Structure formats: C-alpha cells, structure tokens
C-alpha cells in the first residue's frame, strides 16, 4: 500500500471499518467472523496471513492454533501446537501487549524463526481477552510482501482487534444462549413426555385417582375408576358437579395434608361412605401434595377395600364355625372325663352295696360335676351366637364397677391390683361381655404371677382407639405357647378348661376390637383396642 494524505487515510479507515461492520454483527461462528475479517483486510492492505492462537486448556504452557488463513496444509500442521516461549503469539499472550515485527527476514529473533521459514516479511500480533482471562487469544496478521507496516494499516489492524473482542464476546453469548435454549428445550421435552406419561397412567389406572386444588378442593381431574367408585358418569360430573362432587360424603373425608409431615408417601386414612348408587364402600385414601407450575395441588389415590372386607367377613364367619367345630370336638373329651369319674364312683358304691354315701366320695362327685358344668357353661358362651346389646359406656367406669371384685380375688392369693386410668372416649359395648373379658384376663394374670405378684389395669387413647391394658409381672409366655393360647381348650394349667382366652377373643371380635400382646421375662401385657366411632 502506498502512503497517502491524511484525508485519504481517514477515508480508507472509514471504508474498511464500514465493510467490516455487517460481518462483525452477523457472523455466527468465530471461523465465519475471521474469514470475513481476513477477506476485508486483504482486499485493502497487503496482508496475506492470519493466525489465531489460544492457550491449551490441559497444557497452559502451550498454544493451540484454532483459526488460520493464508497458510498451506503442511504449514498449518507445523503451527498447530507450539510452546508459548517459542513464538511471538506466546509473547503477546503472556505480556497482554501488541507485538510488531518488521524486516522479519533480516532479523535473528528466536521467536520469529517459524515466520522466516514461511517467507513472512512483516507481522503484527494483538492480544484478545474474551471469555476466560486465564485463556487469552492472540491474533496475528502477516505479509509476505513489504518489510514495514503503514501507520494507517497498523491503526486499522489495532481497531479491528479491539472490535473483534466485542464480536467474539457476542458470539460466545449467542452460543451460550443457544446451549441454554437447547437445554431448556430438552427439559421441556422431558417434562412434556413426563406429563403425557403421567396423564396416560392417571387415566388408565384401575385405582380411583383424583387431583384437586389444595385450598378449596376443587376437582382438577378425576379418572374413570374414580367416577365408577362414586357411581356416576363423566357427563353427570360435569353437569351436576355441586350435587355429586362437592356434596359427596367421600370428598368430605379426604384427609388434610400435614404441612409439617416429611413422609413422601403422604397421609393415609380408611373411610366408609355410600356412593350415588346406594352401595356402601370401604376405602383407603392416600393424599400426596403436588406442585404443578407453581400451584399447590392434592393427589388423592384410593384403594377400594369393599370386596376385601366382604371376604374378610366371610373368612371370619368361617373361622368362627371352625372354632365351634374345635370346641365341639374338645368338649366331648373334656366333659366325658368328669362324667366318667362320677360314673365310676357310682359303680363302686353299687358293687359294695353301700346305701349311704361316703362324704369324701360325695365331695369328689360334687367337684367333678361342678367342673363339668363350668366347662359346658364356657362352651355355650363361646359357641352360641349371643345377641350383643351395645350401648355407649366409658371403659373407666366399667373397670371401677368390678374393681372391688377383682381386688377381693387378688387379696385371697396375696396379689396386688393397681390401676392407671386416663381419660378415654366412650365406646359402644355390651357391658356384661366386657366385664367377662376383663375378669378372664385378670384371673389368668393372677394364676400366672407368683408371690408378690401384681396386676395393673391401664386405659389410654391411641389415635381414635380406646386401649385397655392388663399387665402382670409373671414369668411371661413361652414363644411356642403364644401361637397356641387363642385356640379353644389349649391350656397349660392342671385344672384349666382352655376356654378363657378364646372367650376373650370372641368378645373382642364381636365388638370390632383387636387384641395383641407383649411378653417377656419381666411379665406379660395384653392390649385390647376398641374403636371409638
């Protein structure tokens, strides 16, 4: 390029920068940008070489050639990776200042030896700091013609290097936005796919499911199984929503989620309700909080236990029939023994021809007949389907009524009775049968405890259950006996009938109560849990 006047130089700078501007703003990749810059500069100045280096990530002492123009394939291979200390670009990156080398072929500078081998006669290199200050760029312009740079030429190259920093930063931000957009698109696709899968599972699930708002319980979606459980159609739900949904007994029993609960599976509750077809249903409701696009929702999953409860009732009835069969089989043996004793004594008296009964024989006969009568009474109590006359009673009041009788039994054997009765809700019971249940447990405990034995009766509330505890300090029940104690006629006592605990189980069952026990070397405790509703 020939030197010109100041006005000419100004026009040239304006022309070059004006031609560069569109590409600076529109280039989408660094390679596209540098190609545009090189084409523009080489058309106005005698520049036929462009080298763009940056610091390698794994080996920061080396430079990596990332863009080049005006070099052959073999030259590019030689320039691909260089030690920072052996090149002009390495000096520029380290010092962060431009480096201008003229008359390159006449110099003996170590850093310019590669340029001399390529026939470069002048070379200008500028630092570029764009993305990461720890990995700066170096951009070099060279020419194989002319030994010196024109001042205008150097000024334009410097201005271009400054603008390239902004252009590279813009491209970097665009690429980052594209990556973020791609990640968001992938996330959206995943969420959309997840929502579609959830919707498909929700609709096709054989278990009734319902999604409502958390605050006012407005129905967002209900699957077909839920509508079937309620005994309504989807059209009826849409047209008679207030009557069939809001006023439904099931909806009023959906449990409130506990905000302080950290249980991921939510809250469960067993409920009973009558659907719109007049069918009584027994279900377990499980509620789980959902967050849908920032809106708190409630997912209610329902398990219909109606058929299961019916089967359970039938099994219970069959079990009771089986129990009666066991009792009938055992009573023949248990009654036959005392009767045989009575018959034997009568035969003995007949053979000896005595007309007056010996007092000792008479006493034995009375005891055996009493025992037979007691067994028969207990058998009838167990096997016969007594009418249960339920009325609401407080368990503490029942215990206080029979406490003098219990204490009298205990004092005869030198045992101690204590009570710990806390306020409990009243329950629907037959007071005579519950009295028999308590007496049977207490008398068993009195027989199980030794000297200095004690029995404690406790009551307390456990959720919606009234709990009765009969605890003693006896030796405990052996593990192999625990599984047998509820069977009719099973006993470890010499003169026991084996019907006491079976009667307790039968009474509890008629009252919808459950019995379980804990036992060990320090004693045994029986827990009877009554429903309050």
Attribute tags:
elongated, 16 helices, alpha+beta, 533 residues, 5-stranded antiparallel sheet, 6-stranded antiparallel sheet, single chain
Walk me through what this model shows:
There is one protein chain. This protein has helices at residues 6-26, 30-44, 73-79, 88-95, 113-117, 151-204, 224-230, 234-239, 241-246, 249-252, 306-352, 359-383, 395-412, 431-448, 479-482, 500-510, and strands spanning 49-55, 62-69, 81-83, 99-101, 122-128, 137-143, 209-213, 219-222, 267-274, 280-292, 295-304, 391-393, 416-421, 427-429, 454-462, 465-472, 514-520, 523-531. The chain has 533 residues and is an alpha+beta fold. The strands form 4 sheets. The chain has a 6-stranded antiparallel β-sheet with strand order 3-2-1-6-5-4, with helices on both faces. The radius of gyration is 49 Å and the shape is elongated.
What's the alpha carbon Rg, rounded to whole Å?
Answer: 49 Å
Distance between the termini: 104 Å
Q: What's the β-strand tally?
A: 18
Tally the helices: 16
Shape: elongated
Q: Order of strands in the sheet with the most strands?
A: 3-2-1-6-5-4
Global structural class: alpha+beta
Detail the poorly predicted runs. 260-264
Fraction in beta strands:
15-25%
| Helix content range | 40-55%
- Biggest pleated-sheet summary: 6 strands, antiparallel
Determine the mean pLDDT: 79
Please summarize what this structure is.
The protein is α+β, with helices and mostly antiparallel strands. Helix content is 48%, strand content 23%.
